[in-house]
Amino acid sequence: MAKLTKRQKMLAEKIVAEKLYGFDEALKTLREVAETTKFDETLEVAMNLGVDPRHADQMVRGMVSLPAGTGKTVKVAVFARGDNAEKAQAAGADKVGAEDLMEDMQAGNLDYDRVIATPDMMGVVGRLGKVLGPKGLMPNPKLGTVTPNVEQAIKDAKGGQVQYRVEKAGIVHSGIGKLSFSDDQLKENFKAFTDAVVKAKPSGAKGKYVQKISISSSMGPGLQIEAAEVEGA
Fold first, then answer.
1. Which UniProt keywords apply (predicted)?
2. Is 213 in contact with 64 (CB distance < 8 Å)?
3. Looking at the predicted structure, is the pLDDT value of residue 149 above 90?
């Protein structure tokens, strides 16, 4: 049997399998584990939901603004012309364009975290469905990424707004900040994210909606959180 590394030994000592943690205790445990890594890890939350996203009335998706931000730099591309293009540039968009931006994306330049478009640009953006769709980047009016108010959309994206979407297995997950954030900041972000997912419960969801909640750090283990920590779970 292979010898355990120091890190594996420490994890085995600190992590109790199948234990349900309060958020504060779980965060403290992840911080202790993260002390051995050399970078500022992201705290991630995963929620297993009682939905089947193959059915339209069980799809869970939306946007939520994290009060303490995400701690990461968000790259934003904007489809706009004229005044709106100038406003987007002034608001800090990383790339602004029209047909030229579409061609650039078709060529494979998709290094963006958010794509925003003004309504008049959807004829151009629509041709990128097969490129942006699989990456979850397709602008959508329901998510506020198709809007005449590009300045606000850019501000939201850069200021800590995250997008969530349930995967095939019924799991929603997202980064909710860096471990360098304070405990209060991370708890506030955790609450904002989980509240948004609970409120987004679709009409077709039957039975128990939130089935399991866990948090992890980039390099750390997943720790299961007590349902009582999440309102409505």
1. Repressor, Ribonucleoprotein, Ribosomal protein, RNA-binding, rRNA-binding, Translation regulation, tRNA-binding
2. no
3. yes
Set out the domains of the chain in order of their start, with CATH numbers.
17-69+161-229 (3.30.190.20), 76-158 (3.40.50.790)
pLDDT in tens, 75-113: 999 999 999 999 999 999 999 999 999 999 999 999 999
The rounded distance, in Å, linking the Cα atoms of 149 and 159 is 16
What one-letter code names the amino acid at 27?
L
Residue 76: phi and psi, rounded to 5, are -120, 130
Q: Given pLDDT bands bounded at 50, 70 and 90, which one contains residue 233?
A: low
Alpha carbon distance 74, 96 (integer Å):
15
Q: CB-hemisphere CA count at 13 Å for 49?
A: 30
CB atoms under 10 Å from CB of 119, counted, come to 11
pTM confidence score: 0.81
CA distance 130 to 152: 27
17 pLDDT above the threshold of 70: no
What does the pLDDT look like over 28-82, one tens digit per residue? 999 988 776 788 999 999 999 999 999 989 999 999 999 999 998 999 999 999 9
Query: What is the C-alpha separation between 163 and 25, in angstroms, rounded?
Result: 27
